[in-house]
Amino acid sequence: MNSEYGQHISxxxxxxxxxxxxxxxxxxxxxxxxxxxxFGRGGHSLALSQRNSSIQLICLDQDPEAIENGKAMIxxxxxxxxxxxxxxxxxxxxxxVETNHLEIMQGHGGFDGILIDLGVSSHQFDTGERGFSFRFxxxxxxxxxxxxxxxxxxxxxxxxxxxxxxxxxxxxxxxEYGEEKFAKRIAQKICEERKVREIKTTNDLEEIIFHCxxxxxxxxxxxxxxxxxxxxxxxxxxxLEIIEEMxxxxxxxxxxxxxxxxxxxxxxxxxxxxxSMRNLEKNEEIGRVLTKKPIIPSNEEILxxxxxxxxxxxxxxxx
Length: 319
Ligand SMILES: C[S@@+](CC[C@H](N)C(=O)[O-])C[C@H]1O[C@@H](n2cnc3c(N)ncnc32)[C@H](O)[C@@H]1O
Prior knowledge:
Blueprint: H1 13-21, E1 32-36, H2 43-51, E2 55-61, H3 64-76, E3 83-87, H4 93-100, H5 102-106, E4 111-117, H6 122-126, H7 158-164, H8 167-178, H9 183-196, H10 202-212, H11 226-236, H12 239-252, E5 254-264, H13 267-282, E6 287-289, H14 299-304, E7 312-318
Parallel strand pairs: 1-2, 1-4, 2-3, 4-5
Antiparallel strand pairs: 5-7, 6-7
This protein binds S-adenosylmethionine (SAM).
């Protein structure tokens, strides 16, 4: 395993495994297929593979560093016959399965469980050169897949977005994806600044945002740049569009009784998950929502891992 790859504590670990496995007992020896579409540090996948030794896992991550670390970990733990890791955006999951694992859809009737644990990993957040955080000075990148090579998206970096978007578009991004109340003022300031210098680094942007905040609000618990950085990350990686597009497709890829569990970290994501799952239950009638209220972490988990505090999990079972 790559020692450079930072720690990441898996969120809602027991709860997600309990829901995904449902009635499957540890002794059940028939082969089962699960997918982890956001492998990250592999915490959920590893725990899932340990719960039942007949589980086969197809895993994806769009981050090349997560893949490099994951491949080493899988080899080190002798799991290469049970865990297959693909470097891809989960937007391409169906194509990947049809090309490489068609027997799961045709022979087995689909996946027994699919997990999505959205958002950034602690490694991404804590690596200054990736540009996700204003805590470190680094290039304003924020792409989860910096070498997408034009895959189907060729996402722009945050710096390119800042450079090329109109003031109206920036305002909309900051307001809608960050719920930033000074969205308009920050977008205006960015547009003034970019006429005289390039806004290239996390520090450049953090400084602009900081000074757009009224003095009395600059040193509150939540740093002024938090919401704009979150908004840019969501925009750069097309996070909301992809999750909305994929939920109905993933539901169709489950076998009867198979479960889709999605862990999200902010209200916009959760709203999409909630509405999409409800639509599959009420209108499409192909699934049943198992979580009438979202599953949230215990106080104990939040004390252990503050990143868990905003997590919500919803689960759909295929009919
Ligand atoms: C919160 S971490 C997952 C942590 C993992 N469950 C664990 O326990 O170690 C989220 C991961 O999902 C990946 N990711 C986010 N959106 C993705 C997408 N659309 N396609 C593929 N991977 C994605 C990120 O690169 C990141 O590594």
